[in-house]
Design a protein that fits this description.
4-stranded antiparallel beta sheet, 149 residues, 2 domains, 3-stranded antiparallel beta sheet, 29% strand
């Protein structure tokens, strides 16, 4: 399977190898119909990656946090993909979500295939690795500063 990334949308679409080949062989100034999905896309407006490609992370615009919250990038910051407050997107707290602080937000593919089946606390560790210690240490330093006042 392959991932079709439409550059002006916040979603990735799974396509077959044959569909990926058709897109790859289409001139940039032409449109491509993917009949199975009922869509037509401009070749110059899409990118195609192998499903397990690390390239999917580069320029990543959407993801899933350790507790299953779906997020998207909004002007460079991670925000809740579905929640709004006073008409503005809700920014994600990097203190609660270390994957945001470390810029290690899993892609939808990574979430579904690597992390979803793990218990929530194990997910955090699997996503962030030993860098969790650094985040916990920073939290303790801040707590110490607050209690000294």
């Amino acid at each position: 399977m392959f991932i079709l990334k439409i550059t002006n949308e916040d979603k990735n679409i799974r396509i077959t190898e044959d569909e990926a080949k058709v897109i790859a062989n289409t001139p940039d100034d032409k449109s491509v119909a993917i009949n199975r999905l009922g869509i037509v896309v401009q070749k110059r407006m899409v990118m195609v990656f192998p499903e397990e490609s690390p390239d999917i992370k580069e320029g990543q615009e959407t993801g899933v946090l350790h507790d299953g919250v779906r997020v998207k990038k909004h002007f460079g910051s991670w925000v809740d993909a579905t929640a709004m407050f006073d008409g503005k997107p809700v920014r994600i707290d990097p203190q609660y979500y270390p994957e945001v602080a470390l810029d290690k937000v899993p892609t939808e593919w990574e979430w579904e295939n690597k992390y979803k089946q793990l218990p929530k606390e194990e997910r955090k560790e699997a996503i962030c690795g030993h860098q969790m210690d650094r985040i916990e240490g920073q939290k303790m330093e801040r707590l110490g500063e607050i209690t000294k006042k």
